[in-house]
Amino acid sequence: MAFMSMFLVMILFLITIVGIVILITGIILDVIWGVRKKKKKKVSIPLKVFAILATVLGILVAGGPAAAVGLMSLGFKIADHQEIAEFDKEELVHVDDFQDIYEDGIYFKGDHYVMAEDLKPQKAHDNFYKEKAGAVVDSNDKHRIIYTVNNLMGITILDIEHSSGVFVKDNDVEKVVEYYEKEAPLYCEITPRYELGRVVRNVDSARIREFRDRILAEGTAYSGELSKTRAGSMLFYSEDDMCCIDFSYSLIGDGVRLFIGKNYIDLDEDDSAFILTIINS
User: Fold this and answer.
1) Cβ-based burial of 252 (10 A; exposed 0-12, middle 13-18, buried ≥19)
2) Which residues contact 29 (CB under 8 A, 6 or more apart)?
3) CA distance readout (Å), 19 to 28, 50, 136, 208
4) 113: which strand partners?
5) Which of 152, 181, 210 corresponds to the end of one domain?
6) Which of 139, 158, 181 is the last residue of a domain?
7) Could you give the C-alpha distances from 227 to 94, 155, 230, in angstroms and in order?
8) CA 234, CA 279: separation in Å to the nearest integer?
9) Domain range holding 33?
10) What pLDDT score was predicted for residue 1?
């Protein structure tokens, strides 16, 4: 995006330079025309034509990019205004700077919402469903849309445009994080090596969390190169895509070695069979 913006600026700059050169040429021809006319010398038709064309074309080409940028800016302002015009006054949150929302949260419809930093929502997934609810407006009249997010808890959770996390009422943070860490039903997105990813539903969520807790508490740090030992990844998402447990695995004989990051545990026969059922489903 940054490269395309720079490229566009360069193109507009070059067009402007070309326009200025054409305009200067037209002005020079206009001066020659005027001098000859003043001296009552005959001015040729081609000179008059080229003088007029160069002057008009130079003004259009030199001023075109600036006019285009101005019209685009006006268009963006109109579009911005129209986008937030649908919201009522209480649905608009005013801040000095967008960065303030991450540090101070926002007051929306009388409640204070803060970012739930321990939640890692998967906003690109289909189950992360949201609807427009308002907008945050900064001191430069720029805005970001506020969405309400459909969730398993049935409470108000907000997603603010361009933010990586979600916002909940300040007195709900603890129970929301605890619910998604310990209770929310999970599904699995599994990607064995050299295969396309696929989704597995109706997994034993409690058992998956037991594996997570064991790795975090008792896991052994792997000292080798992980890319050579991993056989695939298993990503367990809550059914509303509000959180994720990120495993990778390797097959050790008939058993399974389960990783979170570089830490791993070797599963016993029963636990390995459970994971292999998911892998092979």
Assistant:
1) middle
2) 47, 50, 51, 54, 55
3) 14, 15, 41, 66
4) 106, 169
5) 181
6) 181
7) 47, 40, 6
8) 8
9) 2-85
10) 45
